[in-house]
Model the fold of this input.
Amino acid sequence: MSLNVIDLIKGQLGPALVSQAASQFGESESGISKAIGGLLPAVVGGLANNADNPGVVDAITKASSSGILGNLLGGSSSNPIITTLLSSLFGDKVGGLVNSIASFSGISNNSAGSLLNLVTGATVGTVGKYAADNNLGASGISSLLNDQKGIISSLLPAGLSLASFGLGAENWFGQAKETVSSVTSTAKDNIAEGVATARENVNEGAREIREQFNNNNNNNNQGGGSIWKWLLPLLLLIAAGYFLWKQCEKKQTTTTMASSTDSTGTSTDTASAASTPATTATPAAKTDDNIDLNGVMLKGYKGGMEDQMIGFLKSGGYKSAADDSALKDKWYDFDHVNFKMGSSTELEAGSQGQLDNLVAILKAFPDSKVKIGGYTDKTGNEASNVKLSQARADYIKAALVKAGVGAQVLGAEGYGSKFATVDAKATDAERAADRKMSVRFAK
Done:
């Protein structure tokens, strides 16, 4: 399965950065998050569309060592790599892109422009780091970007399209322009052919009407008379008009169906679109509460990791467990501990607090022992997934050792996607359930 680079980049654009950006730009966090959701696939699409441009590939290579990722908010706007790259990717359409994002997300144009620089910096920095870590040369980077072309349009949020950015089929994704031109030309030919056929049939109908009318006149002149002398011509005229209308309608319908293919080569499925709910219910956000640890209050979710572990220990469940086999099937997922995308040594902001809570729990129950587990979703190379999850589990173990409870940590293991349950083709949000760090009691 091809790597989705957007999944890599999201680790640089997490809640902590959204919050900082909102504060710095004077915007709401929801507006900033919405803008990033629209900009990210647009920027990745721009890179994919220029996958074979040596200047773009060179910029990505340089970005890995430029320090962009370390100062996204402070250095993106003035970084010459980003400025030059945006010009290469979008040319004079940068303004249209910024305007569309500002209107879509409800933030100012200035904020949208700053976010465009920030997202571009996060994108090239992350792709550059991935290329460096995996020894990808220029051809490898080009191949990675080319792999993104088939997914970009589907990742744009509802209400946005390449056309809304001023980035239509005429200049995105290879042969789109030729495909549209070909479809248009074929449609014109079909309509012209239909009109010509209809015209011939009308002419034939008119000829028959004249002949019948002449015959009727002859009969009248001979003293006969019949209702057909006026009814038959009328019926023939109506039939000819109906035939002409059906011919034009048929060709127009064919043209519309052929033109429904977008620039990525996928046809619009109106039946499927109609069955998709217009809105998706958003689950209620969890809020931290006070969790009682023998009179000491820890900040955590009711029913979350700390609450469950403390409850289990206080109930005597750990003491009464005969051996490790009685404990191995119950894992407690960290609610707040998250690593930056692709990293095993950098935690997202806000992660340390829950590690401190775990240390406090272990110190309050010194006889208890635990094991750490790391997990990934089903995407990517499994060997790499196992390696990454193992490194993350080892990092958590090392942090606990450093905090003075190492004797209570019996092991750390990375399972990769072995226990993942969500299909690899599911959305990133759905697959997030499989990307986690967990802890269980052990003996």
Remarks:
- Strands lie at 289-293, 296-300, 332-333, 370-375, 409-414, 436-441.
- The first strand starts at residue 289 and ends at 293.
- Residues 173-188, 251-284 have pLDDT under 50 and may be disordered.
- The chain is about 55% helix and 5% strand.
